[in-house]
Every structure is written in structure tokens, then in C-alpha cells.
């Protein structure tokens, strides 16, 4: 499968995780009406209902059909509707038209999930090693889609002039009180020969996280926390969106064409109290929170304005490993659909603000030396996207608990703004 | 208001009609899930939910707010969301983004309708002549949207590869048995000085149906019924879509660019039994039924291939009046969302197949001599669209009962295909 | 051929006219460099060199090849390159790519013209009636292209920030001194049954000018001269481009999308002395001259702002015939590539300012009753464009002498702005 | 300036090179008519005349205006017309409209060149170190444009259905006789710590070629010569353009959307003797010649099909340096606008076919560690394009003699096909 070689997980453990991951997807959809779950706000985003069906199709197509004796697909037409991009698995519904699928209805998709879940749980005790690895891949795949469910839904809600909320805003007492971001510190790292990528036999990883290999790093320093909304507001107010000096050529063109004046979802920026669209609806801008929903172009422009740069993905991984950083959700395991200020919830250690926003790096999403996509349909999982995209590292507030890794390579095109994406500054040393 | 001057309707009668018309809109939405009602399949179409809200906004904005003392809008933000195109009534939500409005939800829109209905029914006994005329306009406006609810919904469902049905297909016994269309007869009309347009004092009409005026007609003949699916299939099989001789230049370009090979919704045309997408789902092509969902370009190409032409709107109106044609729904008052074969249900008289498909004419949608849009917001109702469109006459199977008139001028751009639009042939005489 | 039936012209007379018309095309190209003649500034416009070759191809293809015994095409590949839109004559070079044809060179095209001219003049004494009619059509066709050579070239030069001139501006003394437009008078016409269209046996006309037929007209009045630049400037300064009340819906959308703020070629409109791009380069706006390069949308918006309307093409033709108007170039036969103020050069009679700008009418370009395109390739000449366009009447300063007729129906889509197009106001009477 | 620090060149030597480089540009334009030099075939390409003017503007703006006392620009408006992309130097003519500039004429641009050349040659003996460095940059800049003159012109001629030639094809005897490509050998390289980038004090280089730095390489092997037309034809005939397995996802989408079926300029591929468009016109495909005009997507797809991959730019540079490769034009200094078969003209050494086609690498165009754009307008020279592009290494048959370097980093977006771009295969070892 599309994962790097690793020990085969035990069936019982997988069954437990299977149930938990599948339940979490439903929990994310719980606050939404059928309408919210059906509409597609742009070609890059998908409806919640489609995510729920596609992740189910993944198990049906890559586990049950090849491996479960006598399994019959719930509906043979779903293969066409819910294939995302696997050319090897036949033709598929065009991505920009996913939002037209008012049928199957929400209820039918839930029945589809239930039928596949029952078949999966019945099959798992009998699964061989290959099937178990496919199940593990399917669970990580579904976790990726859990984050996308939130990003895509947030984009949809943000396009509504009523600024509707996904969840009611928590009472003020329950929200982190962080009027000030922690002081930004620079952590220095010597030049080094650093090992990059997921270590074999260290649990699951996607194929693009390996092979582990050495790179040479020059001395650099990395900021202790992501750039905050307050800092980014200074860039906006300093005319950063009107000055081509800070921008890459393509970024300047994109900003001019689309009329970017601030991050998406920022309103009333020219007033004393800008508002920011969140999954709790429109909220006052919190200066201490990490800035979010930046394109790579904006992240790079901010870094240039700040006299710094973006780190490479190798610097990022090396620094984090070296500092013993841990990627965990600050608020425990509960739903946490909005970036929080570092320190607000007891964040500690050399680096702060991890697991709040994905951090753009200066690295193109290229294959590691010796990378080879594996056989079968899963060979299309990662490798075929390795051009025209940039790597993001870390994890965001919308990444499900337990899904983050220091070797994880998220990737998006440089103009993408609907992800929970921010930046952490770097500088050359010596 | 935007209607031609006519006697003011009585308040009690209007209240009765108000209740009936408003109920009919809900009945049309009844078979649909909230998802079906929310999604927008293309910029020209609107979601069912939007139609339900917009027609409500019309009464709120043009009757209750100006005329009902003390009325307070249900939600002041709805004015922005549900204004269709009235520049005089302020900014509005962009048309192509109507499908993004998952909020207000279906339930909220129904509450909106209910609140306005209660206010309207309370207000009507006290309404003055101006308000009563506005109510009458609002009812005809809502009837127009009732047809659009079906056309827009049908376009949405047709974009779904599952070919879902709006309604379950009636049992075979209940469907018209018409394997053969009635023989096509030509009805001849002498040259004449004909009066065209809605007669004053003959009930309601839209402003674009007047002023009534005389035109000169040359001798012509008009077909007794619309072109049938069976006849149109011959055009398709004769290579009509591949031969530029039959096509207007713009039509040929449109057909090539979009890859038209048959009417929209026709499947398996190359087989012995083509299928047609209907509101009952995919059904075998019925040769006797009027061909439907043609663009003007296709209608004109067919007419050229058939050695005939489209009638002008003046010829059409004159012939129908002269022959004493009546526009009524063949199946009584019940829902009838699919064109039926003339004769199937007892159609009689000189002309058959009226009220089955809108009939494209060869007339550009231009103002009648002396046309003057009236004052106020309603001045935008019709006049500002008088360029680049063609007139369609008659009514379709989706036009609500009682909404059709011989002077009615429907209009669409020449490439529009999602309406229930067909054609009736004409020829020069003498 | 594509002309209405008429007496066959005499061969000797045609040969004389042939030589004169062909010479005039070359005279128009004379002031231009090969570069000026090769470049295409937008898909709707064609390079001068292409016009010179296409008009030659017309004679070669419709006269010499079918009728001149033993004629061999100059280059068989030219049929592909220089066919404009005749589907019956085979595939053709895509219109938007005409400007890529740096080869054949200017010199080669001139040799092509010369070879065809020699063959034509040798053939003409032997031509039969059909060929002679084709030649006549070809001459009128070339005259149409003579006007297009100037309009297309003007568009090209207007896109150059250097504002280059086609011709040196004449010395001030030679230019019409008309600081003031003549006072606008309204000429009244009774309701009437009017004969419209080209009379049979009255010389050449295009097929779309007939059949001659009667229409009913209501009382109206027509302005004595076109709207002037000075008058139109008031509309601009009154905020006419920012007020949707005056605009048709499609017009408003076009103006917003394209950012129209004034007619094309108007510069420094907000200053006391606006500049206008002309074929003499940038010149001070002349208030008395007819406003030019308007789209139909702008013409209609101006008319609405002025409390008037555009005339129908029938009103226009009837009024002109009734008043004995004559379409002739004011400055004699010489080149006159810029609209002049009425009265400036001795303009007289009831109507002034004819032959200065094409005048948009309120009439869609529809076929006259009984219109039937004739056989052969020429059947594509006019009829296949009869949808989506508006009729313009009169003639412009760029129309070659002798090419204008009161029955002439020019036509363009409503957004077209690169023609020499203005307007004359009309009003209802009684 | 935008070059890496290097010894200041001597004024006399620069003057000699200045004259030679400027003369070479004119020699390239010599076979072209004014029309050929004016037209722009797509937004990415520029007209020859524009290249001639822009390279002149570069010297005028970056040398004469800041440094030559009393210098007055030839025409102050040229700064607007001929600035390519330097935001710091003010607004500029939009790139897609460069082809509309029929004025200034060809003759005027030649006069512009002459005036600037005279001023430059008069100024050079008095130039200080900064100005001399700017001159050197300007000469390398002009050499870059010399290659673009040929690539852009070739694109223009290829869009002409007549397949015109830039130069007459040489007589058969003068053309390389190479029916067979040399056998493809694999040259192996051990893993290594390799120094990459231009060595300081080793003559001129662009800023993006430094800083020189070490990278770690894994064992690999590199093909002795580029992929040949004959080999690529097998890929085409094996259905390579119809099989998504070989393609990156973006590449597959690009190929489907644009309908790629073979490299641009290949005709009659399905016949036994395909034709290829060259600067000598249409010529029979030469199996031994390097395949050319590939996009990165096609190069990567071919490599996947061949069971190999593209080299990284680091592997390429290391292998070439290690093998002592030399980049020189095989045919001496004469004009050589078409790739030749390796071995045809005495090519020798470990690597063959260098300086025939640019070779796509698998490396995104990212900044080297420590890269910092320098100050002034030249800071925009390279750095601002460092996203979304891929590095090409080597040089092509259209690269002017003396302009190639082993550290040279050419870069284009992955879909670009109008460059002289091919590929050399690589494979992992061990």
C-alpha cells in the first residue's frame, strides 16, 4: 500500500481504531444540516456528505472488494460517484460537480457508512497482512478527510453573508484569555548533517515521508511560535498588500487579480477592531492567535517584510526533532476548530503554537531521494502530486488528535488559502 | 405597478388567490429534500429554497414595507439575500452564489413564508388600490417562479448521474397512451391587419404585453401541433447537428463549443430506444410527445431542415386568437411535470398541444410601440431585459394552471435549453 | 447570388468599377507599414493585409474558379487562409488567429491581388449574367471591407499607448470650424403604412434589404442630427455610466464588467479639455461632432437619460425617404476618416449629419417577411447572422463613397464599440 | 547588480563584447520581415522587435540614465513600452499586448538601438566599477533574449498553417548525417558530498547560481545523451499520451485539456514518416536528434514510461563537472537553430548532446541556501520567480555561443513547451 513498510498492525487494535475514527467523522458532521453537508463552495472543496461517502468508498474499494470473500458493493454506482482521483479505479464524477449530488441523500450516505462498517468489522478478524495495511492506510486517509471536512465547511460558511457559525461560540470564560502573544524568541541551530524523514519501524507514515535520508543544513534560527494575527495586522496596515517588493512575482499577480487586501475572512480591517470569520462565526480579531488561512504567497511576503524567510522543510523537521517538540492538541482530545494563542492553554517547551496552524515552508513538494510510489491503486496516493505544490509542516487546530507527525508532509499549491495555514519565521545564521 | 392598467381586483378575491398560489409553491417543493432545495446547478438556475424566499421577499418589500403600517421585516438581512435584480432596491447577493446559502435553512425559510403570509392576510382587507395591484403582480410573479422551480430543479436532477426522479413515474395505465402523434396539419391564415397585445380591461397582464397595437401580417400557415420527439429524432439521425447549413452562425458556434449532439437529457440516441430524462427519471423516448428543452438555435435549425420556419410572435398570437385557441392544462388542475402527446388526453380543436411546451418564435424580444416601463421598482420587471432575447409563446406543462394567456410573452436568450421549450412550424403562403 | 434580383450590370461598366474599387482598397492601405497591416488587435477585428487578401479570395473563389475557363488559383492554400466564414467552401483559418499570418507577406498579398485583378479584367468581357452578378456582389463586399479596414485599423492604433496617427492631422484651416453643433430640431411624422426595403429594379442591394414590404408606423418624431460629443459629455458628467436606471440589464452588466466610463478613445474626461483618439491621433474633443464608437447599450442608455428613445429601423427608413434625405459624403469623394460636425461643410436639408456615424436603431436584426437566403455559397452572406444583433442605419465617415443606401441594414452585436457608431434620438408622438 | 560578486571586467574588453553581442542580435533578426518581427503569438512570447528594444532599454535604464552624465533618453515613452517586469522602474505595457505595438516601427527601433549603442560606446571608457558590472549583466541579459528571439519566433512560425521557414534548409550534404543515435550509455556516480553552484572569482554568473554550497548525493547514473526523437516516438506509439499511469496529476490534466498527442510541431505522427516543424520549415523527423519542445510534464512521463527518472539539478551539475563536460556549440560559432544528433559533428567525451536541448530536471526552482537578491532594480532579476517553476540545465542549439555554464539555472513552468527543451534520463543506483 501507499505507506512505508512497517509492522503489520494487530487486527483487534485496528478494529478499535476503526470504530473510533469512523465515529469521529460522524461527530464532525453532527452540528450540520443536510443542506450544509451537501453544498460545494468551490472546485477545490468538497461537501461534507461527499467526504463521508468517499472515505467509506475507500474501505469498500481497497479492502472489502479485493479481500472480503463474497462482498457485494452497496451500490455499484457509488464507485463512479465517490472515487476522488484514482485513474486506475476507472472513470469518476468530475470534482467541480460534487456539490450537485443531492442524491444519494444524507440518510442514504449514512446507511452506506453503516453497511460498510458492519462488513468491515465482520471482516477484520479474518484479514491478512495486506488487508490490514490497507485498513491502516484507510484510517489515516479518513483522518486527512476529517480535517478537510472542517476546512471545506469553513470555506462554505465564509461565503455566506450571514457569517453563520458551525458551533456556538464558547462562553468567554471557557476561551483562552491571551490578549498578548508570548514574546517571540529565536532558537538557533548549528549547521548539521541531519536525518530527514520517517524512521522505518516507527509506526505508520505515508509513502512521501520516506525514504529517510541525510541532508546538509547551514546554521539557522527558527522562531519560537507562529506569526500572530497582531503581527500580521501590522503588515497589512503597513501597506504590505500594495507593495510588490515583498512579493514573489506569481504572488503579486495572484493578489492583484483576486484583489487580496488581507487574509480571507478578515473584515473591517481598517477599523480599530477588525473581525475575523471563525467556525464560531464572526469574532473580534485576537492579536495573540496565530494568523491563519494564508497562501504561501502571503506567508513569503510577510517573511520578506519582516526581514526573515520561511524555513525549509528540512530545517523545520530537524529543529523540531532536535528540540524534542511534540505535536499534540493543546485542549486535550476535544473538538478545537479555531487556532489558539500559544501559552493560552499551558503550551510549553522550546517551540510553542504547534498543532495550531499548518506552517508553510520554502520547500517545493518534491520526492525524497529514492522515493518510489508502490504498486496498485495506492500508488496514486501521493507521488503524482509532486509538482507545483509547497510543503507545509506541523498540524493545525483542525487536524484530528493522533494524526500529526514530525515527518508529516502536507502540501498545497501556493495560492491555496482555505486551509488552516500560517507560518513560522526563519533566518540564516553566520 | 409593472402591469398594464386594469381594474383593481377585490381584496377578498385576492386573499383567496393569495392563499392558493402560496400553497401551490409549497406543494411543488413537497417531494424534495432540504438538499434538493438548496443546491444551484448553474448560474441561470436558482435553488427551490431561494425561489420560496424570493417570492416572499417580493410581497414583503413591495407590499408590506411600503403599505402595511408598522410592519417590521422578518430579518433585515433577507433584503440583501433575496433581491433578484432590482437595482432600485439596493445591493444584492450575486446570482451565481445563491446555491451557497445553506443558511437560512429550509425550516427558516418556511417560517419566513409563514410570517409574511400572516402579515399579508391580515393586511389585505385594509389594502388600497395600489397595494392590491402590487399583490396581484406578486401573485403572477410567484406563478412565474413556480414554473422556474420545476425547470431549475429538473436541470439540477439532470446533472446527477443517478438520473433521480422528482416524482415516481405514474403507473403505465395512468400515462397517456400515444404511440403516434396526431397527423400534422397546416392551418392557413390570410394576410391581415391584426391587433396584437393584451386588451385593456381584460384582466391582468404584464407591462410587456402592451400597448395593444396593429401589425400587418402576410399570408402564412401554422402547424396544428408542436414538433414531436419522433420528428426531431429524424433530424438528429439525419445528421442535423453536424451540418452547418441548417444553423444560424451563432447557433452553430454554440453547438460546436458545447458539443451538442441532441436535445439535453436525451441518452443512447444512437440506439433503437433512446432514453429521455424527465421529472419521473429516465424514460423511453415517446415519439408522440412534443420535443422539449430546445434552444432557439436548435428550433431554428430544425425548422430550416424541415423546409419551414418559426412563426413570428405576431403570427402566433393572431392565429391562436383567430382559431379560438384556449390555453389550458390538459390533465385538469393536477401537477403535470412532463409534456404529453396532443390528443392523448382529449386535446381538441384546430390547434393541439398547447400548454405542453413553450414555443420559440422568430421574434426578438423588443418593446411594443409606445411601451413605457412604469415607475417604481416594478419598472425593472420586464423592460430592462429587452435586448438579446427571443420571445416564446404559449405555455408549458410546468406553467401553473391559470397563468397562461394568448398575449403572454416569455423570453430567453437563444442558447437557453433548460426551459420546457419546443417549437411549432410556420410557412409563408402565396 | 446574395443580392436581390436586379438588372444585370453591363460588363464594361463593371470593369470600370472593378478597377476603381480595387484601387481604393490599396489607397486605404497606402499610409500603413507592413507591421500596421499585419497585426490583429482583437478577435472581432482583422488585419489590413487579411482584408486585402480576403476580398481577393472572394473574386477568385466565387467568380474565377467556377466561371473562368482554365483558371488556376494563385495558391491553393489561400482558400484555407482567406475564407472568412463560408462553411460551404470548406475549413478555414480560425478568425482569432488572422494576425499570426506574417506569411504570406505584404508583398505576396499584393502580388495575389495583381494576379487576380489581371485574371478578372481578362475574364469580365466574357462573363455571363450569373458571373456578372457575382462580380457586383464582390464589389459591394469589398466596399464593406474598406470600411472595416478603417475600423479595425483604428482599433489597433487606439490600443497603442503612443496614440499613433493613421494620417497626419490636416492643417487647422482645412478642418471644419464648428465649435457649436447646429440646434437640435425634431421632425414629426404621422402614423402611416410605410413601404420598407429596397425597391426591386432600383439597382443593387443585399438580400437582407428585401423583400420590400409594408409596416404600420405610429406617430413619432426624429432628431434633425445625431447626438453630439458635447451632448454626450453631459451624460458622462451627469454620472450616466454609474446609474443603472438608464441601462438595459445586459448593458449595465457589460459596462460594469469592462469598466466603461466613457466612449472608447475618450481620454482625460474629467478635465476641462477631454481628448479623443481619432485616425489623426489624439485630438481635443469637438463638442459639435457626432459622438462615435458607442455600443448599442450606451446609445440606449443615453436615449433613456435624455427622455427619448432610439428609432426603429422602420421609422428611420420611412422618415429619411419621406424627407428626401440623401446619403452622400460631405467632403466630396476624398478620404474622410473622422466624423464631422453637421453644417460644417454645407450640410443641408431636413436631416443633417448623415454619412457621419452609423445610427443604432431599436430593431433587432431579424429577417423581413418572406426573406429567403438564395442558393450557393452566397446564401451565407447575411441570413445566418440574423440573431443577437441590432440594426444600424445610415452610413459613416468611413463608408466608401457610393456604398450607402437608405435601405442598407448594417448590424452588430449590442456590445460592439469599434465601429463608427452613434445615435439619433426619436420620440413617440400623440 | 544581480550577478554574484566577481572581478570587475575591463572596459576595453567589455566594449569589444558589447559590440559583438549587439551585432549578434541584429544578425538573428536579419532574415525576418518587419511583420515577422512585430507579431506576438501568445502572451508568454514576445515579438522580435520588442526583444531588440527591450535589451536596448536595459542598457539605457540601468547604465546610461544612472551613470552617464547628461544622457537624455531617446524617447521618454520607451520606458513604459519596453520595461519587461521591473516593478521598481514604474508601470509598464502589459505583456500580452506587446504584439500590438506596430509603432515604433522596425526602423525606429533600429535607430533606438543605434543611438544607445553610440552612447554606450562613448560612455564605456569612463565607466566606474558599478556601471561596468551593470554592462556585463546587460550583455548576459541580451544573450538570454537572443535565445528567446528564436524560441518566440519559432512559436510564431509554427502557428502558421503554411509552415514557413526562418532560414532555408541547408543542402543535404551540409546537414549532419545521423540516421542512428549513438547507443545510450549509463554513466555511474557514487554517493558524494558535492559542491554546487558557481565558484566565486570564476567569471560572471547570475545571482541564482549561488551561493556555492554542498549537498549530499546518493549513488545514481545518468544517460550519456538526451532522449532522441526516435525513442520518444516509441513512447508516443506505445500510447504514452493516453495512459495516466506515466503522468503527474497536473501533467495529465494539462495534456487532456490541451489535447496533447505528441510534442508540439510533430505532424503526421501516425504515418511511417512523421514531420517535425523546425526553423527550416517542416522536415522529416530525424530519429537520432534529441527530442525537443517538451514540457516538464512530458519529460517526466517519458522517464516514468522508460523506467527511469529525471535527474535533480544537483546530480546533473555534479555529474557534468565530475566528467569534465564542456558546453560548447558543436558547429562552431555559426547560427545553429535546430538540435543535432550527438556524434553527428564530432561530439566526444563521456557525455554527448550537450548544448542541443535544455534538459528538464526534477528540481523545483528554489533559492540556494543563503541566497539573497541584491539591491536595486536588478534584485528583481531572478529571485522573484522562485516558485512554481522547474530548473533546466545545460544549453540548447539556440543558446548563443559563450553563454552556457555548468552552473546555469534556466527555469520555466512545467507546462511550457515553446522552449528548446528535452531531457536526459537518470536512475537510482544501489
UniProtKB/TrEMBL annotation, chains A, B, C, D:
The keyword Iron applies. InterPro entries: CTDL_fold, DinB-like, DinB/YfiT-like, EgtB, Sulfatase_Mod_Factor_Kinase, SUMF_dom, SUMF_sf. The keyword Oxidoreductase applies. Pathway: Amino-acid biosynthesis; ergothioneine biosynthesis. Residues 201-328 form the Sulfatase-modifying factor enzyme-like domain. Residues 19-146 form the DinB-like domain. Keywords: Iron, Oxidoreductase. One of its GO terms (biological process) is ergothioneine biosynthetic process. This is Ergothioneine biosynthesis protein EgtB. It comes from Aquincola agrisoli. The lineage of its organism: Bacteria, Pseudomonadati, Pseudomonadota, Betaproteobacteria, Burkholderiales.
Amino acid at each position: 500500500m501507499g505507506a512505508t513498510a512497517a509492522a503489520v498492525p494487530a487486527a483487534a487494535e485496528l478494529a478499535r481504531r476503526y470504530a473510533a475514527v469512523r465515529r469521529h467523522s460522524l461527530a464532525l458532521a453532527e452540528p450540520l444540516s443536510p443542506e450544509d453537508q451537501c453544498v460545494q463552495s468551490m472546485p477545490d472543496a468538497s461537501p461534507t456528505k461527499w467526504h463521508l461517502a468517499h472515505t467509506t468508498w475507500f474501505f469498500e474499494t481497497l479492502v472489502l472488494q479485493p479481500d472480503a470473500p463474497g462482498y457485494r458493493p452497496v451500490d455499484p454506482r457509488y464507485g463512479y460517484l465517490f472515487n476522488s482521483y484514482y485513474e486506475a479505479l476507472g472513470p469518476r464524477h468530475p470534482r467541480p460537480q460534487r456539490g450537485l449530488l443531492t442524491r444519494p441523500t444524507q440518510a442514504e450516505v449514512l446507511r452506506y457508512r453503516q453497511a460498510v462498517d458492519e462488513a468491515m468489522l465482520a471482516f477484520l478478524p479474518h484479514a491478512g497482512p495486506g488487508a490490514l495495511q490497507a485498513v491502516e492506510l484507510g484510517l489515516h486517509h479518513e483522518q486527512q478527510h476529517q480535517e478537510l471536512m472542517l476546512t471545506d465547511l469553513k470555506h462554505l460558511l465564509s461565503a455566506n453573508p450571514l457569517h453563520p457559525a458551525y458551533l456556538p461560540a464558547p462562553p468567554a470564560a471557557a476561551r483562552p484569555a491571551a490578549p498578548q502573544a508570548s514574546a517571540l524568541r529565536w532558537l538557533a541551530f548549528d549547521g548539521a548533517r541531519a536525518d530527514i524523514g520517517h524512521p522505518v519501524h516507527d509506526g505508520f507514515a505515508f509513502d512521501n515521508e520516506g525514504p529517510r535520508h541525510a541532508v546538509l543544513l547551514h546554521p539557522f534560527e527558527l522562531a519560537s511560535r507562529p506569526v500572530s494575527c497582531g503581527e500580521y495586522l501590522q503588515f497589512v496596515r503597513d501597506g504590505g498588500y500594495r507593495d510588490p517588493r515583498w512579493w514573489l512575482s506569481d504572488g503579486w499577480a495572484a493578489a492583484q487579480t483576486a484583489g487580496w487586501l488581507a487574509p480571507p475572512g478578515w473584515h473591517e480591517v481598517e477599523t480599530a477592531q477588525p473581525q475575523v470569520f471563525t467556525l464560531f462565526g464572526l469574532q473580534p480579531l485576537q492579536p495573540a492567535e496565530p494568523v491563519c488561512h494564508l497562501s504561501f504567497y502571503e506567508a513569503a511576503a510577510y517573511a520578506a517584510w519582516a526581514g526573515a524567510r520561511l524555513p525549509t522543510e528540512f530545517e523545520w523537521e530537524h529543529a523540531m526533532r532536535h528540540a524534542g517538540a511534540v505535536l499534540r492538541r493543546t485542549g486535550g482530545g476535544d473538538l478545537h476548530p479555531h487556532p489558539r494563542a500559544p501559552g493560552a492553554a499551558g503550551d510549553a517547551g522550546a517551540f510553542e503554537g504547534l498543532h495550531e496552524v499548518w506552517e508553510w515552508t520554502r520547500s517545493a513538494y518534491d520526492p525524497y531521494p529514492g522515493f518510489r510510489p508502490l504498486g496498485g491503486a495506492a500508488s496514486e496516493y501521493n507521488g503524482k502530486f509532486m509538482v507545483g505544490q509547497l510543503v507545509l509542516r506541523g498540524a493545525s487546530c483542525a487536524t484530528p488528535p493522533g494524526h500529526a507527525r514530525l515527518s508529516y508532509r502536507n502540501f498545497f499549491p501556493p495560492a491555496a488559502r482555505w486551509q488552516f495555514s500560517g507560518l513560522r519565521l526563519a533566518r540564516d545564521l553566520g
